[in-house]
Amino acid sequence: MQIRIHQLLHAVECPPLGSVLGGTVRSNERSAHPPWSSQSGRVAAAASVNVPDKMKSRIPVVLLACGSFNPITNMHLRLFEVARDHLHQTGRYQVIGGIISPVNDNYGKKDLVAARHRVAMARLALQTSDWIQVDPWESEQVQWMETVKVLRHHHSELLRSLPWKEGLDQGKADSPAPAAVPELKLLCGADVLKTFQTPNLWKDTHIQEIVEKFGLVCVDRAGHDPKGYILGSPILQRYQDNIHLAREPVQNEISATYIRRALGQGQSVKYLLPDAVIAYIKEHDLYASPGEE
Amino acid sequence: MENSEKTEVVLLACGSFNPITNMHLRLFELARDYMNGTGKYEVIKGIISPVGDAYKKKGLISAHHRVIMAELATRNSKWLEVDTWESLQQDWIETATVLRHHQEKLEASSCDQQQDSPVLERPGRKRKWAEQRQDCSQKKSLEQTKTKGVPKVKLLCGADLLESFGVPNLWKGEDITKIVGDYGLICITRAGNDAQKFIYESDVLWKHQNNIHLVNEWITNDISSTKIRRALRRGQSIRYLVPDLVQEYIEKHSLYSSESEERNVGVILAPLQRKTAEADT
């Protein structure tokens, strides 16, 4: 995972600001406006320079989705595609990777099959994806952990995988142009945004850290009003610039709950989840009857 | 044997399939589960019959591509297949005629099986159905063989097709009667009540309501081809909405664009054209 992000980071074009504006910029000026920040885009715009889109520094983003994935469905996979399209369309971001992090068994949710299965199914589902991966770290921990801790972990992993680290906090004049620091954003459906309102489900400090330090990409879901949820919460309102609401044009309510019920009743779930996942489920006799495991 | 009491069913879906999506494929799965679940039917095959180019629908790309995409989509299905007969016809063909074509084909091959001989299609010559049916009925009266009934073709559709029966001039009254009277309809719908109301308000549909099976689709799976084409024009991802092979094929051949969406603009849809032509004569 680390190596891949490393390679992907190099692929993101982040030219020094000076070359974009056509003049020379001294290196200490450059360190004041790191190329990977959105400042450079805004500065270029303010200078009325017609910068072609791909020359502007886009902020690299990795999307992290936490959840049961019990089992993973085409709808989960769609979240990533829709979120990526949305962020690209803003012109400010370049999505360079996606992470699926299945929840720990100790979460204690009803009907949750063993993590090793949920991880294996996600891996099979992602075989044909060239940018999303499953990460079993969360599921391998001794106990269940809050989402913010998973975000912190993956963020530090991302930083560790950068091609260099020392220049980051020192801004040396002669350090090479740094690869942009990617942002890690939590990807979720609008239903998860709503759960922020549920008393005692999330710590307020965690909600704040999630939207302030990381950011949220929230995909539409029928029957939910994400704008309303944001307006109804002071914390979310304050950081609403860091909450991206993505529209899913194709209403696609493939809930894993329905999948489990259909499987329990011997009904077909073909075309709702990848074939490889269905084959795995049959092979391991998962979800064969209600209330298994 | 239990199975011989069940009626064998072949599901036939007609449509543009422009392009085929996971939702189309789901219709088959839902219909099969439902029909098999009644205990009275056994679904043995599903046929996708893409409409011919002569249909003249706006944005309809060449049947050649639509057929290939459907074949890619059903490549790893054990019971779904694509039939090109309709798409190869010069003129647009009414759905009732497509149903009849497939029913007769089933009767012919069922008869061949009864004769215990392999299907006799000598290269370069297809036996005419009329000949086959004559042979068949003669043989039946001569031999007292215990046979399984011939499989029945039924039209598989979404609620939009059912409700299109109400669009003036789109369907011939006699065709609707044939479809629900002689064959049968399996209609997958989210809005079961609306569909039931529609049936109630139509004398023809009401009369044959036992031949109209409404199947509830609990999952909102609104993957319409129109939305797929729109997403493609906007450079948006269609992954996980259509089978991977279909998505790759579309990308490789750059099938859908603003230009392709303008095809047949200003042209009257074939069934409406035909109705007008008939009214004039």
Automatic annotation (TrEMBL), chain A:
Which processes are annotated in GO (biological process)? NAD+ biosynthetic process
- Give the pathway listed in the UniProt entry for this protein: Cofactor biosynthesis; NAD(+) biosynthesis; NAD(+) from nicotinamide D-ribonucleotide: step 1/1; Cofactor biosynthesis; NAD(+) biosynthesis; deamido-NAD(+) from nicotinate D-ribonucleotide: step 1/1
Q: What is the lineage of its organism?
A: Eukaryota, Metazoa, Chordata, Craniata, Vertebrata
Cofactor(s) needed for function: Mg(2+)
Q: Which Pfam families match?
A: CTP_transf_like
Residues forming the Cytidyltransferase-like domain are: 64-261
| NCBIfam families reported for this sequence | nicotinate (nicotinamide) nucleotide adenylyltransferase
What is the species of this protein?
Tursiops truncatus (Atlantic bottle-nosed dolphin)
Q: Which GO terms describe its cellular component?
A: mitochondrial matrix
Q: What is its main location?
A: mitochondrion
Recorded GO molecular functions are: ATP binding; nicotinamide-nucleotide adenylyltransferase activity; nicotinate-nucleotide adenylyltransferase activity
Its name, as the record gives it, is Nicotinamide-nucleotide adenylyltransferase
Annotated function: Catalyzes the formation of NAD(+) from nicotinamide mononucleotide (NMN) and ATP. Can also use the deamidated form; nicotinic acid mononucleotide (NaMN) as substrate with the same efficiency. Can use triazofurin monophosphate (TrMP) as substrate. Can also use GTP and ITP as nucleotide donors. Also catalyzes the reverse reaction, i.e. the pyrophosphorolytic cleavage of NAD(+). For the pyrophosphorolytic activity, can use NAD(+), NADH, NaAD, nicotinic acid adenine dinucleotide phosphate (NHD), nicotinamide guanine dinucleotide (NGD) as substrates.
**Underlying gene:** NMNAT3
Question: Keyword Nucleotidyltransferase on this protein?
Answer: yes
- Subunit info? Homotetramer.
**Family classification:** Belongs to the eukaryotic NMN adenylyltransferase family.
Return the EC number. Answer: 2.7.7.1, 2.7.7.18
List the catalysed reactions. Answer: nicotinate beta-D-ribonucleotide + ATP + H(+) = deamido-NAD(+) + diphosphate; beta-nicotinamide D-ribonucleotide + ATP + H(+) = diphosphate + NAD(+)
Localization (cell): Mitochondrion
Automatic annotation (TrEMBL), chain B:
Residue ranges occupied by any Cytidyltransferase-like domain in the UniProt entry: 12-230
Q: Where is the composition biased (Basic and acidic residues)?
A: 129-143
Q: Which residues form the signal peptide?
A: none
Q: What is its EC number?
A: 2.7.7.1, 2.7.7.18
Q: Which reaction does it catalyse?
A: nicotinate beta-D-ribonucleotide + ATP + H(+) = deamido-NAD(+) + diphosphate; beta-nicotinamide D-ribonucleotide + ATP + H(+) = diphosphate + NAD(+)
Protein keywords: ATP-binding, Magnesium, NAD, Nucleotide-binding, Nucleotidyltransferase, Nucleus, Phosphoprotein, Pyridine nucleotide biosynthesis, Transferase, Zinc
Q: Name one GO molecular function term.
A: nicotinate-nucleotide adenylyltransferase activity
Q: Which InterPro entries match?
A: Cyt_trans-like, Euk_NMN_adenylyltrnsfrase, NadD/NMNAT, NMNAT_euk, Rossmann-like_a/b/a_fold
Q: Where is this region: Disordered?
A: 107-143
Q: Is NAD among the key words of this record?
A: yes
Subcellular location per UniProt equals: Nucleus
Might you name a Gene Ontology BP term for this protein? NAD+ biosynthetic process
CDD domains named in the record: NMNAT_Eukarya
Q: In which pathway does it act?
A: Cofactor biosynthesis; NAD(+) biosynthesis; NAD(+) from nicotinamide D-ribonucleotide: step 1/1; Cofactor biosynthesis; NAD(+) biosynthesis; deamido-NAD(+) from nicotinate D-ribonucleotide: step 1/1
Cofactor section: Mg(2+); Zn(2+)
Q: Pfam families recorded for this chain?
A: CTP_transf_like
Return the NCBIfam families for the record. nicotinate (nicotinamide) nucleotide adenylyltransferase
Q: How does it assemble?
A: Homohexamer. Interacts with ADPRT/PARP1.
Question: Which PANTHER family did the record assign?
Answer: NICOTINAMIDE MONONUCLEOTIDE ADENYLYLTRANSFERASE, NICOTINAMIDE_NICOTINIC ACID MONONUCLEOTIDE ADENYLYLTRANSFERASE 1
Protein family (similarity comment) = Belongs to the eukaryotic NMN adenylyltransferase family.
The protein in question is named: Nicotinamide-nucleotide adenylyltransferase
